[in-house]
């Protein structure tokens, strides 16, 4: 199979994104019991703007920071639709840490798009964002009964200690074994 011309691929991408949006919209309509409150528009505008930015980033500009923004807005708008439509019994005051998950996912995808492979710097940052979101979500949903300030006061010194130990071990390991040193990553200048 030969490669399609770029303009056809861009058209296919636009139609694909429109079908994703249309399918999501139809899904919301299908599960909606009462259509009177359907037009709570702000999450739809966020999701649509994210899809448009994602399209232009991939099809025209090829910029990973625009792709990150587009994916983040698209995912945030989709998640906001579920919250504002009362599909979940929780509100934004309990579910705000989910946006950290979405940030981690968006960052990972943008890094993968930029370098065409998984980069350790993007992967570690994405995992850290997701783990931070999990910790905050546990406190936000009252799964953990301890106050967040008490938790930080209790675990903070251990995190600092083990983080320091990790850095020192990495330093000595890289000095003793030069094969463990990763080659310099490409500069994050303009793409």
Description:
By secondary structure, this protein is mostly helical. The chain is 73% helix and 0% strand. The chain has helices at 6-31, 42-61, 64-84, 92-95, 98-115, 120-140, 148-176. Helix 5 packs antiparallel against helix 6.
Mean pLDDT: 80
Helicity range: over 70%
H/E series, N to C? HHHHHHH
Using only CA atoms, what is the Rg?
21 Å
Judging from the principal axes of the Cα atoms, what is the shape?
A: flat
The biggest sheet, with number of strands, parallel, antiparallel or mixed sense and barrel status, is: none
Amino- and carboxy-terminal Cα gap: 30 Å
Poorly predicted runs: 186-191
How many E strands? 0
Helix count?
A: 7
List keywords for this structure.
mainly alpha; about 190 residues; 7 helices
Set out the fold topology.
Elements: H1 6-31, H2 42-61, H3 64-84, H4 92-95, H5 98-115, H6 120-140, H7 148-176
Short recap of the structure:
By secondary structure, this protein is mainly α. It contains seven helices and no strands.
């Amino acid at each position: 199979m030969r490669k399609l011309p770029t303009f056809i691929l861009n058209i296919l991408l636009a139609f694909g994104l429109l079908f994703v949006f249309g399918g999501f919209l139809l899904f919301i309509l299908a599960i909606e019991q009462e259509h009177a409150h359907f037009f709570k528009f702000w999450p739809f505008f966020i999701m649509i703007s994210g899809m448009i930015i994602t399209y232009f980033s991939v099809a025209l500009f090829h910029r990973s920071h625009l792709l990150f923004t587009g994916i983040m807005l698209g995912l945030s708008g989709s998640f906001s639709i579920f919250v504002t439509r009362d599909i979940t019994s929780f509100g934004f005051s309990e579910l705000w840490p989910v946006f950290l998950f979405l940030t981690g996912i968006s960052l990972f995808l943008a890094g993968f798009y930029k370098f065409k492979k998984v980069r350790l710097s993007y992967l570690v940052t994405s995992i850290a964002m997701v783990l931070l979101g999990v910790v905050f979500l546990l406190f936000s949903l009252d799964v953990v009964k301890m106050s967040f300030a008490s938790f930080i006061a209790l675990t903070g010194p251990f995190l600092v200690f083990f983080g320091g130990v990790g850095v020192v071990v990495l330093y000595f390991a890289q000095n003793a074994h030069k094969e463990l040193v990763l080659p310099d990553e490409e500069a994050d200048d303009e793409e």
